[in-house]
Amino acid sequence: MTIGTVALDRTAALAPMAGVADRAFRELCRSFGAAYTVGEMVSAKGLRQGSKKSAQLLEIGPGERPCGVQLFGNVPGDLAAAAELALGAHPDILDLNMGCPAPKIASGGGGAALMRQPDTARAIILAVKAVSPVPVTVKFRKGWDEEHLNYLDFARMAQEAGADAVTLHGRTRAQMYAPAADWDSIRRVKEILDIPVIGNGDVTTPEEAKALYEQTGCDLIMVGRGALGRPWLFAQIRDFLTTGAYAPDPPLEERMEIMRRQVELAMAYKGADAALREARKHCAWYMTGLRGAARLRREAGTISSLEDVDRLAQLAIQLDRE
Ligand SMILES: Cc1cc2nc3c(=O)[nH]c(=O)nc-3n(C[C@H](O)[C@H](O)[C@H](O)COP(=O)(O)O)c2cc1C
Fold this sequence. Notes:
This protein is α/β, with parallel strands linked by helices. It contains 14 helices and eleven strands. The strands form two sheets. Strands 3, 4, 5, 6, 7, 8, 9, 10 and 11 form a nine-stranded parallel β-sheet that branches. A two-stranded antiparallel ribbon has the order 1-2. The site of flavin mononucleotide has 23 residues, from loops.
């Protein structure tokens, strides 16, 4: 499939996840066959005001392309100026966040709050399209809540304003991340748009990936939480979609090496302090489903060095053998 001029494998993309889908994790997912990755959302205002943290979030490594940069904000001029700055990182695609439910974002008028202000959303898409030589995509939800399900109108608006693709997360803002995502809403959007539609929500297995394609006809699927602590899921999805079969999860020793690799990459990209602090949650995800998982997750919560990561891996292997 192609988004604008960018050709992507029709397998699975990694969803943008603030505080989680950093350069290290994206690179790992891409190495396992993710079709495409999107960076953590970046504040348009922050970028415009010269925030170092925002600028750092834009960094894209050579090993993770094709990669999108995602911007959030609610002022068209801010978004256009931020897009111009973001283009300095040479993203393959610029993605606009119109679905984030977090009060911190939505109360300022950004993220999902834009679904209540479709005229502002349109102005943002037009403003960013006007400055962007790379494709511009829009990620949104079904609506603010069950009483305001305007995703079909919003999807049409995005296409008319020039979006090159849309991503729909099949939940309302009020639903946050539960209950089950409504895949039928993705099918409906696919039915009415000419531009590619990316379906998102609740894919955690190769079978679910195939089902999302089959039930909605969407052009690409995007996986978020299902890939946490399991970047090899992208290889399994790719293999299942292309051959009808896939290998089981890698052996535990190998999974622990992948976990270590992720922490090492993060340390190289963002410094030991931030990387090790964040390694606590990433390593806890790698412990999911293992024998003694509760104890292992507690251990993960105390990580403060690479040696701690190694000790956790050894403990996981030891408990598995007992
Ligand atoms: C920790 C976390 C951070 C997220 N950050 C973003 C973000 O920065 N931008 C965005 O558009 N969506 C964000 N999302 C939403 C995901 O991209 C995705 O739409 C949602 O998790 C549903 O997909 P899933 O069921 O595969 O996880 C985030 C989700 C999680 C769990």
